[in-house]
């Protein structure tokens, strides 16, 4: 029991980025406007969890604002309302998602470069690197050969050393979006 509680604690988001701010709640909400609460749709910084949060009175965060959503006192977020699926996002949130993810990935570049350095085979025929859109066997072997010589230091380092791989961060972003759109996918690299 204690172990299960610790595991769930590890998987909680502490920070999230705003995808869309809904000052009058959902447009589908049938209650009068004065009865609705301001909401934001956000994406978690660590596990890319899509969430809907209610906001404290007077808060009006902008898209791409980083909000504290962890335990304890929060300055902008009142409470976490619910977990969202990709299809639950507003059109504005869907259109902002790639830009917000790009910001998160670049802000945490070391974490994702480490993925290129540490990715392992999943089965005898499938490697984690091959789950990134656009990476086939040839590129996978090029990445593995280069990282044997010396671990990658940055996205630019990966791009300069692996022929045909100009924007490695885009591959990460596209995989995260794929995992958010397909939550039942068998292999997850970045989401829960």
What does this protein structure show overall?
With 192 residues, this protein is an alpha+beta fold. It has two domains: 84 residues, OB fold (Dihydrolipoamide Acetyltransferase, E2P), CATH 2.40.50; 74 residues, AF1531-like domain (DNA polymerase, domain 1). The protein has six helices and five strands. A five-stranded antiparallel beta sheet has the order 4-1-2-3-5. A hairpin with a 5-residue loop joins β2 and β3. α2 crosses α6. The longest helix is centred in the middle third of the chain and has 17 residues. The radius of gyration is 19 Å and the shape is elongated.
* Widest sheet, order of strands: 4-1-2-3-5
The description of the largest β-sheet is: 5 strands, antiparallel
Average pLDDT figure = 92
Overall spatial form = elongated
Number of helices: 6
User: For the record, what is the CATH homologous superfamily label of the largest domain?
Assistant: Nucleic acid-binding proteins
CATH topology of the largest domain: OB fold (Dihydrolipoamide Acetyltransferase, E2P)
Low-confidence stretches: 1-9
- Say how many strands there are: 5
InterPro entries: DUF655, NA-bd_OB-fold
Protein name: DUF655 domain-containing protein
Organism: Archaeoglobus veneficus (strain DSM 11195 / SNP6)
Pfam families: DUF655 (PF04919)
Summarize the structure.
The chain is α+β, with helices and mostly antiparallel strands. It is 36% helix and 16% strand. The radius of gyration is 19 Å and the shape is elongated.
């Amino acid at each position: 029991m204690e172990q299960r509680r610790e595991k769930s604690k590890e998987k909680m988001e502490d920070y999230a980025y705003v995808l869309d701010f809904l000052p009058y709640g959902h447009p589908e909400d049938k209650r009068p406007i004065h009865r609705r609460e301001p909401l934001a749709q956000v994406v978690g910084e660590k596990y890319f969890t899509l969430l809907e949060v209610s906001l404290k009175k007077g808060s009006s965060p902008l898209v791409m604002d980083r909000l504290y959503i962890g335990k304890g006192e929060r300055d902008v977020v009142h409470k976490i309302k619910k977990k969202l699926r990709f299809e639950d996002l507003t059109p504005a949130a869907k259109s902002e998602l790639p830009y917000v993810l790009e910001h998160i990935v670049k802000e945490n570049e070391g974490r994702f470069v480490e993925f290129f350095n540490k990715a392992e085979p999943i089965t005898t025929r499938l490697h984690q690197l091959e789950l990134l859109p656009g990476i086939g066997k040839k590129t996978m072997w090029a990445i593995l050969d280069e990282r044997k010589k010396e671990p990658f230091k940055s996205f630019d380092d990966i791009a300069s050393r692996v022929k045909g791989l100009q924007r490695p961060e885009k591959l990460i972003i596209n995989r995260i979006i794929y995992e958010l759109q397909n939550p039942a996918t068998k292999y997850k690299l970045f989401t829960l």
